[in-house]
Specification:
- Six copies of one chain form a homohexamer.
- Chain A is of the alpha/beta class and about 270 residues long.
- The first copy, chain A, has one domain: 3-Layer(aba) Sandwich (Rossmann fold), CATH 3.40.50.720.
- Chain A is about 35% helix and about 20% strand.
- Chain A contains nine helices and nine strands.
- In chain A, the strands form two sheets. Chain A has a seven-stranded parallel sheet, with helices on both faces.
- In chain A, helix 1 crosses helix 6 and helix 3 runs parallel beside helix 4.
- At the A-F interface, helix 5 and helix 7 of A face loops of F.
Chain lengths: ~270, ~270, ~270, ~270, ~270, ~270
């Protein structure tokens, strides 16, 4: 949690979906600083609400539950859905049908801003010796990345047609620390994640903006030039972990797709091959 | 039908899906020239096969039926699925689940080339005074366009991961003749459609290539420079219809989204608003 | 004059300014085919109107005269103003103050489409071994080119702010025939000029579009890709004059700015140096 | 004023025009550090010269006065002219005729470097969710922006034709502090303004270079990549004001052109509508 | 040979190197139409001169011989050197040392225009499903392509430093007819070769221009947009051979580098692996 | 030497060529920290090896010596060859034949990573008011730059064909301190040189990557965006020398090619003119 909130702008009611997921758990206590009421939801029971919280249970596949979930909400931080490579069916349910249900609920409830947890796996089939920007054609590295690309396009449609604004965060690797050399490029600290989410929530005009979620790492494959209007300024860096990570992982097998492509492990293994 | 086939290259067995649809009906007799056996399919019964044909009934949502449908096939011309703006559910079924089933069936059956009927509605929210190329970020104009963008990304994934090649045809307006001034830009004759499909089937190396499907029209919004390796050379043009079309439709309401955006009528009306 | 009009679309009243200028004289009889009434104007008296014509005298510097001139007009073909390199004062009067007066008159009279005779001299300081498109930063070759760049920017402003559409024609060299080797690149036949003006008048949506005015010449320095929505298809070519022109002008002095820069003679000599 | 001059390079005589204007008043005491003599001018009387100063009164519209003003000058910092949206006539006089007079005076007096106070309003009709670079086609948001675009093109001409170098500063918002959320993107401190002007004056080779004038703000719409040779490194940032500004202006009306376009207030209101 | 010369421009003395090579033999009788004297050279004896010819023997590695060879010459058509993949040593001698000797001889003799037979193998490691333009970074497919890239850079240097102009022709496959499906993309007829060489010789200003040498083929991987100022308009096309070629070569092995890369056979086999 | 090594990754045996050259001497003691054995070589005798060193004498022109030199080596830092503008012959020997011998030796010995000391003189004929990225077409400023462009293309070939990875460092000016105003843009400290070499050695996947070698200077002409995957983060800057350098060199002669072009002194003088 940042010592001081990243912005004094307060929402009456923010919704955080996927509140029991890895990043949801990180964001839940942090987002309270930015709203009067933080509504948190998950597909499973979240227990009793904390101070300033509302708790709801809602499955993304359940259209009516989603409609109720977004009622009275100013903005959504959508961390829900499947967040790893999985077989097609759960990804279809959570990330395709679920994303549609979310945006329909936003449209019907008049919600005007969504922070969408997209993923670097939308472009995971670019090589690790390529630097791409946010307009490069997508190259998903699996069904998960494919479903996130769908979500981004859905967000674009809902902006072009109904004026609902989205910031699609192509999150790299948000963990306590980078665990391998790939993550020296993709890592984003939890504090920077908070900064990025808040920047997306508070930037005055965003239309549909795509931005890669990463800290200020020396090594990077991604260029956020087209998203500078978001005002995201990372203050952490994977560089402080470099020595330790490189000491642990001295060698790279350059013929392994895991080493070659930006998607890393998502490229190589899947439950579906 | 072209007087002479566009290529002497022959496939043992070609599959045409959506054979009872508007473009399917046009392509069905034409494709017989390029294969020993033309397998045609539709969700509803197609009646008795013609000479050199095999007829199968298969719904795109039916995984097993799709698996059987692609068995023994060299290449697929995928015209099946929903081809107009519709509510979400039928589009989900036919164009998202259906596309997945088709590609899985291709992967399991070792089919290596697919011609995918995508649509100009993938980029329908660009303005009619903009010229875009095939790498411009997508801006679908509705659920139909959104589902076609999904299909293109799916095709990219199946190429990057499993080497299945696809030519995604962003078909403009393939009708006997252009019926309004928008179609002076988007029109593609049936003969040019045949040329384009055959070019896609016979080009030696295509990876995943996106190409707009249009005749050699004086007015156009689309630049196919990145797809020149397909070898598509249109020989028809909307220009011969210009006088008649313009005479019929003298005025344009420039404030109407239908006139402003490339997607035309798809932008303005939908069953879902 | 084309044997057959380039379009059946007819305007009630078209205004042609600069009707006694070089290109105005060419266009005057041609434009009658596209309107019920052709209003023609010049700073000096044009004599009696022809059939289907209205004649007005108006100086571009005269705000009130311009306001009256555009009253009741559907669209304007603005060929008026200074069309050669001149000292600053006449260019200021005719092409800067005059352009402002024209657009103000259009705004006040509700005129919604202007064809603006801009010039290749807006980019005359690019070299003859460079190919530029319509988005390249301007490099005017003199006060004339500078004033035309002003006119284009004015057109952009009146579109962005008040929705008045303009097609800015960066005319190359519109003469009966190319007279030197530079014109093999820049030449536009009078018939192609008519085609271009009519395309600009009748294209459904143009916003503010810049397009170079040239025939289908083998040699060219300009790329109109971004203006394909205008639907201009030149049918003439400088190629038929190539032999004669090259025979006449066998040698080029490559150190002469006139030979080096696209602006040709405009680069080298001026009344102001 | 910087504690220490930004460069030890000294000019014999620098000219600062518009010395009584908002930015002129800021720059006047600062520029003394960079020259033996600072000539300051304004259209109205500036009173007695300070130490190391020469004072002249000169109206930009007055050709002869401008010729005298630039006599014996090494370089010009041109802050004069109209600096707000105004009706056409004063803008024409000060910023179009005036800019011409300035450059003609430079040419006749052999002055070889000009720092031209252009403006972000040259591109004010881009949206606040777009990031543009210095080569994007101009989209002025009013007559003021239009006149600054003219000045930039004039500068390009005088470089291409006569070798007079200019750095055109597209100044964002140079005030003591940002007063609204738009200025979090556009703000430039007075110290950074000094750094930018001095960088422009002392960079060895500039040709005609366009650069946006802003501090090191987290939020920005502008990319100065093409101007890195100027060597401008901002040391201030609007970020330190963010909390206060956002607390004061919690909400944005996203349908208001003032919020939507980069030009902000200049887009919405004008004395001329 | 063209029925009529492609241009009436005549040189006093043209030099054709490599006159006994495959393309040299084609060009030798054709070039006589464009000069008073055609000097032809080869490393081996060319026999007696024809009418209007001078014959010289000169090895590219022989500095003095090259100096003599270019004496009194207006322009050079440089077809000499190694033109197939070879071990390093002969390529070094003919195409690197030889190219240097040629340009030094041009500089010392005041020759101001060279047509340099470069090759598509300069970019042979791009894939056959990619379309590149003449500014794409080079990716040579072997020592031959590498040496041609050297020649192009040498040409650039001699233009930037000494004003010697070159048109570098990245020749595809210039044969009587395309012999396989790759050549449907790369083929250039001998007549088009003549048109291209003459366009390069006679274009007024070329600096150093790179252009791909191909006929007007439906299938292509190369975009000559940046070279339109050369005025090359191909009039032949591989399309007339398509049926025959495709009938002969029905299948492609998409895993074979020969099929995958633009360089074709040059990619796969070499005397050096 | 950095206080602490830039990376804990250690090689068994690193080769440093040109160890007695200017940069070789700087790198020799620094590289010992990154390997068990540092093999150093030069064309002349290097004397007795230091601790952890192997010393070899090898001329780049000597194929067999190079083959022996790379035997048993993990990676090469190639600082050898000619590093100033020279007549053609020594450059041919050291930088063209020598580079070929080095890469052949790498291929035969199975060496998989090379750091190649290229040079900013590969693009020295761009102007000092232009900012270029690493994909801009090369414009060498002399034979030295030409030979470095050859080396880069050779590296590309050996990656595309044989999978040998290279980072080509286009080194600016690596000296103890910048000595003139040009070097304020081009300077790279020795510490940053070490950081850059180590980044190139340890980045997991590099293919063939080009990167400009410079410190974090305020003034720059080069954009390394496409090389961010290398993870090079300069920590020094020419800015600390700016005052002193500018005080010493107050004036620039803008008509001197040395001042105008990025190559500086290499553009103007040569042993060969």
């Amino acid at each position: 949690m940042l010592e001081k909130p990243a912005s004094p702008i307060r929402f009456k009611r923010l919704l955080l979906t996927g509140a029991a997921g890895n990043l949801g758990k990180e964001l839940r206590p942090r987002l309270r600083a930015y709203c009067d009421v933080l509504r948190v939801s998950h597909r499973s029971d979240l227990g009793a609400p904390g101070a300033g919280e509302e708790v709801m249970t809602a499955s993304l596949e359940d259209k009516d539950a989603m409609l109720a979930l977004l009622d009275g909400v100013d903005a959504v931080v959508h961390m829900g859905g499947v967040s790893t490579e999985q077989p097609w069916e759960p990804i279809l349910a959570g990330n395709i049908v679920g994303a549609y249900n979310l945006y329909e609920a936003a449209r019907k409830n008049g919600v005007k801003r969504i922070i969408f947890a997209s993923s670097n796996h939308v472009t995971g089939f670019y090589r690790q010796d390529e630097v791409i920007d946010t307009r490069a054609p997508v190259r998903p590295d699996g069904f998960y990345g494919l479903s996130k690309a769908f979500g981004e396009n859905l967000a674009q449609l809902y902006f072009d047609r109904w004026g609902i604004e989205t910031v699609s965060l192509r999150i790299g690797s948000s963990f306590p620390a980078p665990v391998d050399r790939r993550m020296l490029a993709t890592w984003m600290s939890f504090d920077d994640l908070e900064r990025l989410v808040v920047a997306g929530l508070t930037a005055p005009i965003v239309g549909h903006t795509v931005i890669y979620g990463m800290s200020d790492n020396a090594t990077t494959w991604w260029d956020n030039t087209h998203a500078r209007h978001i005002g995201y300024r990372p203050l952490d860096s994977s560089d402080v972990f470099r020595e330790e990570v490189e000491a642990r992982q001295q060698t790279i097998d350059r013929k392994d797709p895991v080493a070659l492509y930006q998607g890393g492990g998502f490229v190589a293994k899947g439950p579906f091959d």
